[in-house]
Description:
By secondary structure, the chain is of the alpha/beta class.
Amino acid sequence: MTKFSDLNLDPKVLKAIAEAGYETPTPIQAGAIPSALEGKDVLGIAQTGTGKTASFTLPMITLLGRGRARARMPRSLVLCPTRELAAQVAENFDVYAKHTKLTKALLIGGVSFKDQDALIDRGVDVLIATPGRLLDHFERGKLLLTGVQIMVVDEADRMLDMGFIPDIERIFNLTPFTRQTLFFSATMAPEIERITNTFLHAPARVEVARAATTGENIAQGVVMFRASRRENADREKRALLRALIDGEGEACTNAIIFCNRKVDVDIVAKSLKKYGYNAEPIHGDLDQSQRMRTLDGFRNGDVRFLVASDVAARGLDIPAVSHVFNFDVPSHAEDYVHRIGRTGRAGRSGKALMICSTRDTKYFEAVEKLIEKEVPRLENPLGNAPAPAEGAEEDKPAPKSSRSRSRGRGKGDKPAETPAKAEAPREQAPKREAKPQEKREPKAQERREPRQDRRDTNRVVGMGEDTPSFIRLSFDERRG
């Protein structure tokens, strides 16, 4: 069996590894370290939790043992997709390089530019950064990348998901053509493969597991969830999550609960705390200091349940996570691999449970297609029983009904008002008909009286009532 002492690492590095309690490298470490020490480009493909961080930090420290850093010109560069992963890489560097004189700088958001500039100005051997903050420093003229000898891209597929690929390409073009590149990813999407073909030169491909596979030491399960009513779906889903946690009992020492949306992270964490669970949220909208405090609390056991968005799905090295709960089915199937990879690390066993609602069925099918295995279906621990009310949430429909009553006074009073309004016109109708009849009768009489006058033999038609006597006389003579 291969040991770290067989990998030609610097004696100071071997001493730090021994003090950390490690003797045997993982498959990805045993495959990547020798090629990296030979100066070759490395393309490492392995599922999360297999020790990819040490597979590039150990040879990097050994290769940088000779030489000296210059101001604003780091000798090596490590790119990470998230602040948490970058901070973790920095911690690993501190552990393995503590017997050397190598220096480092961590460039992430949420930290003062002034403090970071001071570190860069002194010169650093290892620069660990997220792409956005790195380019910010470069555009401000505080950083030069022409002295980079080793460049590492960690969690490249997560970079793709977060839209960092254009930034990665730009950073590649800012570094020397002669650099050594170590490229690591859990999955190989077509876009990632294009990047490797463009910027890596005859890389040593190290693939210790099929892309997008889950660890065999992780027990998986899914509950197919259907809400009793649409408006009760969220409340019943949270009740189901609590039932799953309770069902695991003492075996669930701690857990990460993943949600797709940041707003759901806050809601689920608040709901769990309301029911007495020791839970805290973590997502990208929180301050960096708060995120680090929450992670530290989860690591040391002060926080039992970490409710997280996918910002925490990658690279968090917390070996003793017993469970992962997927409150939502991830919209990207690859994220499922990374989420459940937070448990079952360093050879431990783990358990990953997921809730799949009817609207998430297509995402769940994509997950099973990606991992090429069927996730066991579990029975709903609540059965068909309605979920318990969550205090004030049960009263949410009440304001709607009260508003509807106040608006229409309406809806309740119309049946009483409508008949009264309908009867009033029927009572008034005869009155309106009677008045015209009384007015029309005199008019008819007035019309008949002139007709009698017109039948008068002494009246000449067409001449009116005042016919001259000489004219009337001529007509009278004719009649006579």
